[in-house]
Write a structure and sequence with these properties.
Elements: H1 3-10, H2 14-22, H3 29-39, H4 43-47, H5 51-79, H6 84-95, H7 99-116, H8 130-135
Helix pairs in contact: 1-2, 6-7
């Protein structure tokens, strides 16, 4: 039986039937009795939840939360900036005292910072107004 047919029998709109089916609304008591007659089910069977389905939904929700926690942990480990920038700056400044290291270490520091620094994702090369907007 289609939603339109049931809606016509109950004297309600098809959208009301759709809301009831999707759990966004509930029929009043008179319509609930009529629905039980139409579908030849007891009111108890119409109202009662499917406990097996509810258990599966709870298990899926728990698994999703666990996966989200794991993903957040991985993202934090990947993108965490643990004072590495400060250490690199200190090494570069110290390398100014030793000329051969002073030629190589700044290039390594720049490469390391652009590769692993999560704050480097701001692309200021292609935005000519970046520096003017920053100072404003």
């Amino acid at each position: 039986m289609s939603q339109n047919e049931v809606a016509t029998i109950l004297h309600v709109t098809r959208q009301s039937i759709s809301k009831w089916e999707n759990g966004r609304g509930y029929p009043d008591l008179d319509n609930l009795v009529r629905l039980s007659d139409i579908y030849q089910l007891s009111i108890d069977e119409l109202i009662r939840e499917n406990t097996e389905l509810a258990a599966k939904i709870q298990a899926n929700n728990a698994e999703i939360k666990e996966k989200q926690v794991q993903l957040k942990k991985v993202n934090t480990e990947i993108h965490q900036n643990t004072d590495e920038g400060l250490i690199l700056i200190l090494l570069v400044l110290a390398s100014a005292l030793i000329p051969p290291i002073g030629m190589v270490l700044p290039l390594y520091a720049i490469w390391r910072n652009t590769k692993y620094n999560s704050l480097h994702k701001v692309d200021c090369k292609f935005n000519p107004n970046f520096w003017t907007n920053l100072s404003a």
